[in-house]
Amino acid sequence: METLPISAESFKVRFIGAGKMAESIARGVVASGMLPPNRNSTAVHSNLNRRQVFEFFGVNVFSSSEEISGSSSLYLSLE
User: Fold this and answer.
1) What is the pLDDT of residue 46?
2) How far apart are CA 62 and CA 34, in angstroms?
């Protein structure tokens, strides 16, 4: 299988699950300047506290995993 580089301008990280591990990785990516907060996304199903944690540092939060699909993304399933 051939691998192709992903352009840094279009790269996104999308978390399926919004637990402590996803939070730690997202915070690290944002704090390091590797990606701006708006290029990180997660899906939070019902826990309002988890939604607020991610929104606090600028990560896009969606209601379902299906909403965060797309190309040029790294998906991390941490459920």
Assistant:
1) 80
2) 22
What does CATH list as the number for 12-77? 3.40.50.720
Domain coordinates in residue numbering, the chain: 12-77
Question: How far is the C-alpha of 15 from the C-alpha of 19, rounded, in Å?
Answer: 9
Tell me the sheet residues that pair with 61. Answer: 42
Amino acid at 29: V
> Which residues, at least 6 apart from 30, have a Cβ–Cβ distance to it below 8 Å?
36, 37, 40, 57, 58, 59
Q: pLDDT per position in the chain (79 positions), as tens?
A: 666 555 667 788 888 888 899 999 999 989 988 888 988 898 887 888 999 999 999 999 998 877 877 645 565 555 5
Length of the chain as a residue count: 79
**Dihedral pair phi/psi, residue 56, rounded to 5°:** -60, -40
42 near 59, Cβ under 8 Å? yes
